[in-house]
Automatic annotation (TrEMBL):
It comes from Quadrisphaera setariae. GO terms for biological process: putrescine biosynthetic process from arginine. Keywords: Hydrolase. InterPro entries: Aliph_Amidase/BUP, C-N_Hydrolase, C-N_Hydrolase_sf. The keyword Hydrolase applies. Residues 13-256 form the CN hydrolase domain. Pfam families: CN_hydrolase (PF00795). This is Hydrolase. One of its GO terms (molecular function) is N-carbamoylputrescine amidase activity.
Amino acid sequence: MPSQHVPTRATTARVTAVQLAPTLLDLPGNARRTTTAIAAAVDAGADVVVLPELATSGYGLADEAEARSVAVRADSAVLDGWAAACRRRPGAVVVGGFCELGEDGRIHNSAAVVDGTGVRAVYRKAHLWDGERLLFSPGHAAPPVVETAHGRISTLICYDLSFPEWVRTAVLAGADLLAVPTNWALGSRPAGERPIGQVVAMAAARSGHLVVVCCDRTGRERGLDWTEGTCVVGADGWVLAEAGPGTATAWADVDLRASRDRRAGALGDLLGDRRPELYAAVSAPRLHLPEQREAVTV
């Protein structure tokens, strides 16, 4: 796979996002592809590996029956294979998307945080995009924050990134790195501009002062093409590496613990300067504008 590398420093963790092409409804094949990709990345020196959304099933599932046919439990052999691949390098961690069969029989669009000991956490996508709500049950738990040898890793999935409140939830829980498995459908954009998903990731990284790793996918699926916007964004909000088109990887070396220094200027602090008493509207029920808004007097 083509890749981009940043020179290694002694205090850094080497992070990679692996942009690959899952085959729709091919669970055994996708299990092999993802496990092989993790092993290759770990052998190349990766400490943290991020895979796309629904990497085990493909995205363009027609209905709940198709989703159920490729759904696996968190204790499945698929994720056991990911853990085995992590054991090739001490401390290696993978975050990847999978179609999950929950304990209650419901189907979820999920991400697993896995290391050599097994599954450390499972996150279920809370904000379902468009027709996903016809296939999956939304998650109701906050993004997990997992302590690893390299720092504190959290995860959310694709559309979740569009909700600043959800990113801030992970930041306030102590996340140093936010891994974002995603499937960004290809859309139009002005010449010379970054994909909008990358712009959102840059804003999230900047406002939360944490590393954000977005792993998109490639390939064509039931008429869908993909942005192929895989990237690693530093805690300052600037893109450190991109995968580019096709099957590819984005690599960057980052000091995750440096994310914890959230000073802003000589006197400011990104978390300490918050004014929670002013933010009640952020968590209020949806407002139907403009009919339900009263005139504001200043």
